[in-house]
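Notebook p. 47: complex prediction with 4-nitrophenyl phosphate.
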Amino acid sequence: MKILMVCLGNICRSPLAEGIMRHLANTKGLNWEIDSAGTGNWHVGHSPDHRSVKEAKKNGVDISGLRGRQFQIADFDTFDLIYVMDRSNYTDVLRKARNNADKAKVHFLLPEQQEVPDPWFDDALFAPVYKMIYKACENIADQQQ
Ligand code: 4NP
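Predicted complex, structure tokens below:
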């Protein structure tokens, strides 16, 4: 299984999702390929936000080595599943889809199209965002194996 996690900047939410999903896949012995990307290009080449790095580290997940990159159309070819954090990511990724097969790969990370809030302007959101993403990744790992 090849999974891509997508948010806006690729420095707060999707690096957490990438790190957590990889951690859970490894724990469960799943040979999955996990990556993340942002719909925007402001943070290409940047490390994840220090608040995400800290929250992950607190929970035993190291995301410090990840680097930001922008979502590209070729990602539809590379990945089986593309998980987005919120509605604007959903719209932005779907806008790049070339056909129905591309569109069918795109899902909200949380059930019932709930959104993972953007924690960029609110330090207090990093802990709940971590928990939301962890639970969603656990569900994905449990369902897909
Ligand atoms: P993310 O958070 O989409 O979870 O990585 C953001 C990071 C940076 C910006 C916005 C959201 N920004 O505007 O630079």
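Notes: DSSP finds six helices and four strands in the chain. The CA atoms of residues 95 and 139 lie 27 Å apart.
Next step: compare against the earlier run before touching the bench.
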